[in-house]
Amino acid sequence: MLEEYRKKIDGIDDQIAALYLERMAVVKEIAEAKKAGGTAVSDPNRERALLTRLTSAAPAELKLYLKLVYDEILETSRAYQRRMIGSDSPLAQALAHAMTDRESFPAFGTVACQGVEGAYSGVAANKLFKLPDVTYCKTFEGVFQAVEMGLCEFGVLPIENSAVGSVNAVYDLMKKHRFYIVRSIRLRVSHCLLAKKGTTLDNVTEIFSHEQAINQCSKLIGSLKKSVKVTVTSNTAVAAKAVAESDGHVACISSRECADLYGLTILGNNVQDSDSNFTRFICISKSLKIYNGANKISIMMTLPHESGSLNRALNKFTTLGLNLTKLESRPIPNMTFEFMFYFDFEGQPEDADVKGLLTEFDLGSEQFAFLGSYTEV
What we know:
Mean pLDDT: 92
Largest sheet: 10 strands, mixed
Radius of gyration: 26 Å
CATH topology of the largest domain: Alpha-Beta Plaits
CATH superfamily of the largest domain: ACT domain
Number of helices: 13
CATH architecture of the largest domain: 2-Layer Sandwich
Number of strands: 15
Distance between the termini: 56 Å
Low-confidence stretches: none
Structural class: alpha/beta
């Protein structure tokens, strides 16, 4: 009996597949007409009317399932039309221009980093460039400003950690400043507990470090005496410098490099909670540059504050077979329950489907920013 039902399903599926191909042939003709007339690919009113008409005749228990099927059919139709039509939008033109002058990632450059010498951002810069000329800024915003003002060609900033998540301060600043990501790097972070020579763990009364490093070393912090004060600093290297300038009885969570730089003793090696502790850094530029080998894209945008808007955006990636590697949302200041969404995905901007998707997001979102196409090392 089951086999008979399966044979019926096979026959119906053959008809559905044939009708779908017939439908897409008409979609191709529609795309050609839209291209000739300069009409937008998406027609929300037409799509709503279609879904209402088709679902109105369906049994109540199947209405939602039929809608889901047609949501996918409409999405694949839009994707096919985007590929057929292409685009001459400002973003598409900017990407085309950036790709005509592609070159290898530079070995040298002026680079802005947050903190002081010994900061992990500086370590990342030295791994990204063979010979960087590093300028240190007091704050993350100072790095963005240095790049925007042309004081430094590049900036290196931490964006997320494998143990404690995103660096929210950087994500929030991404909404404010205009920049492009041109490279990223995953740096293994190994924290040390440092103090002045002669200081022992038993007589430490205060520990300095950046908030992310403190969170990454929660087991160490929990093992200390309750009387030990934990003080947040702007940077792990800033913490090391403060300890070096102190009268003693203080320690910091910082890098091994800082021990050498500031003449400190290592009270503990690898004090982070996890041995697999990685921080991802982005390298930003004021100009849109796409270097050879770029295979990752970052964008940010707002979505309509309505049911299904995020799901529709995600379906676009699925339809095109694009691997979404990160999705982050941050609240928009002074806007109740409104969020900015950040997407990282694998893809090349020269791909027709990717260009079509970026153009659709650019034209269809109230706020959209192409953050860059780059390689992660």
